[in-house]
Amino acid sequence: NTKMAVLVMFVGCLAVVCNHAQSEELKSRVKTKDTVVMEKGKIAMDIDSEGEALKSLKKYQESFEGKRRKQMEAAEHIFSKATYVERYKMTKLLLNNLFETLAAAKKNLSGIDITTLPPLPRENATLLTTLVGVYENTAFLGDVTLRLPDIVHRLIDHKQEYLDLAKWSLETCIQSVVYEDVHDTHARLTLQELKLSENIDHDYVNPFSEKSLLHEKALQDDIRKKNERQIERDTRRKNRGPQLSRERLDLA
């Protein structure tokens, strides 16, 4: 099926596929170093190579920004599809791909205390690839969740393993200095949307939910009808011409 082949290619190009290395191999290669914890629980770079680590981190953050723009465009592309069926199929395929990758990453990182690692462990290529995959796939998961919330809820709310993976990946990213400012907020909003946050905000509203979109449409329709009625009244008044009234006689 040509359409399905194109869709698979689309998802394959956007999702970051992590190397499926065995967790035992990672454990033997990871070197535990002294680390410091930055404000708000963000993990600091290795003190011994702080300057080099900061340079590497800044370079990756710039690359991350570029990838984030492409991911947001991809989420918008799905949202713009004409029919619900198209949006649903693309979102389902994409989520399956993302959660498969995140599950492999979590397995690779099992038994490793991520909080003791620098955000970009350059001395371990496999571990670096795994963490970068978590950062980027989790961000994309957030884009799709916040832009197509109702479809995402229908697809994953009944799958506890998906919800557990989402919570793990989002909390992992929030701990990292890679996720600063808008990226941190984005991850926390995704936790709210999926109702996985430890501090549920009962005032949280997603403007892209079906309920919000219908409410906004109803408001716009009401404004449009009021404007049309006002124009109609003004037109009738203008067409009637001047009218005689007691006030006009008194002034005369």
Structural summary, described in words:
By secondary structure, this protein is an all-alpha fold. Helix content is 68%, strand content 0%. Helix 1 (2-14) crosses helix 4 and helix 7 packs antiparallel against helix 8 (182-193). The longest helix is centred in the C-terminal third of the chain and has 31 residues, at 210-240. The protein starts with a helix and ends with a helix.
Any idea what the shape is?
Answer: elongated
| Beta-strand residue percentage | under 5%
Cα(first) to Cα(last) distance is: 84 Å
For the biggest sheet, the summary is:
none
Q: Please bin the fraction of helical residues.
A: 55-70%
Provide the low-confidence segments as ranges.
Answer: 1-13, 15-48
Helix-strand makeup class: mainly alpha
Radius of gyration: 26 Å
Question: Taking all residues together, what is the mean pLDDT?
Answer: 78
Q: Secondary-structure blueprint of this entry?
A:
Blueprint: H1 2-14, H2 23-29, H3 50-79, H4 84-108, H5 125-147, H6 149-156, H7 160-175, H8 182-193, H9 210-240, H10 246-251
In summary, what is this structure?
The chain is mainly alpha-helical and 252 residues long. The chain contains 10 helices and no strands.
Name its key features.
68% helix, 252 residues, mainly alpha, 10 helices
